[in-house]
Amino acid sequence: MTSKLNISRKAAISAFGRSLGTTAMALAAFATATSPVLAQGANAPLNIPANPQMFGTNDPNVRRATAIVNGEIITGTDVEQRLALIVSANGGKIDGEEKERLRMQVLRNLIDETLQIQEAKAADVPADDGQVDASYERVATQNFGQSADALEKYLARIGSSAASLKRQIRGEIAWQNLLRRNVQPFVNVSEGEVQEAMQRLQASKGTEEYRIGEIFLAATEENKPQVFANAEKIVEQLKQGGSFVAYARQYSEASTAAVGGDLGWIRLAQLPTELATTAASMGPGQLAGPVEIRGGFSILYLIDKRQVLTADPRDALLSLKQISIEFPKGATNEIATKRAAEFAAAVKAIKGCGDAEAQANKIGATVVANDQIKARDLPGALQETLLNLPIGQTTPPFGSIEEGVRVLMLCGRDDPQVNSGPSFDEMMAQIEDDRVNKRAQTYLRDLRRDAVIEYN
């Protein structure tokens, strides 16, 4: 019988690309300069005095929650429904002050979203309803594990709406359509560049490569303390279970925000020195930061690491049999311990995978088999144990009084093939994507600069 192994994943590290819910954090406002002379550089031509006198009142507690962007209204309802998604995904554990900062950040995101939708429409490449509906259904199935109708009811229950989520999807699709029309055709990558990149990759064979997520918050000398404080709050929320992907998508100011901050597989030499030093000491699943770099602060999440063009043992496909017993309801620790000891002794007598079912029947155990388990999908402690296990042997017993006790027997292993690296076309696409992302950041900055925005 082939079925899904019931392995407890409580100790497992969450994969970066999964939808883990959303929490949020607003960036700090610019602080009033305290130094006697304004910082040199890009700000110098503005000729801003060191100690400006304010004429009129400016109450920082009065926040305007709606806006009109080039004649299109963003309502308070739009803001609150988008905010509800974030609050719900964070289990409602957001205090009033934090929620207010978050509300202003949501408004900023909605303004950018509106500009992107407007520009795509003006360029005659809007996201059509079919694209939006198809993406919405994929989100419902892949991220929430339910139908589109069930997702709509869930959104209404938490104070949001399908329309709010679809608007976000529309903005993302419209922006990608626009980049394909106005940016991508003008990005050129020569064959020589690609060949040079592939040669560098081959020369680095065997060296370590890191897959890193980054949240970048821009800062100036004047507002550095405030931005750093907000970055620390983001780290605290992430450590409490917040989604790195969600934070990066909403608040990172790097071009990788659209892909959840994922930098892809890179070598440390490609990072700024400060980030490379930090990443070198990190393990998969570890969070670090905020790290100060030129222009701001970065928060890093190490998704995984591997050796360049070298097979990773964790990609091995394992054939496993799970042998398990359950404890009777209300079993005491003493009863469970005794039963577990008897189970462990019986398991040692099993002579390989072919004998598992017969011996399991004698002790009232259940056997479940699966021939397609990738080692990296198992909890870390089990990965190491199974990869060092001879065929026909079992792991030590593990479990709990509630879940019962079980062992995994290794019945086969298909080791991964050596990765030859990206093809010529794949390498060219990687370089093109990087350049498109950088130009996209400039494109959006220009849209903000030229926009007519009225706050209500």
From TrEMBL:
Residues 207-304 form the PpiC domain. The keyword Isomerase applies. GO terms for molecular function: peptidyl-prolyl cis-trans isomerase activity. PANTHER family: CHAPERONE SURA. It comes from Novosphingobium aromaticivorans (strain ATCC 700278 / DSM 12444 / CCUG 56034 / CIP 105152 / NBRC 16084 / F199). PROSITE patterns: PPIC_PPIASE_2. It comes from the Bacteria. Keywords: Chaperone, Isomerase, Periplasm, Rotamase, Signal. It holds the Pfam family SurA_N. Residues 1-39 form the signal peptide. The keyword Isomerase applies. This is Parvulin-like PPIase. InterPro entries: OMP_Chaperone_SurA, PPIase_dom_sf, PPIase_PpiC, SurA_N, Trigger_fact/SurA_dom_sf.
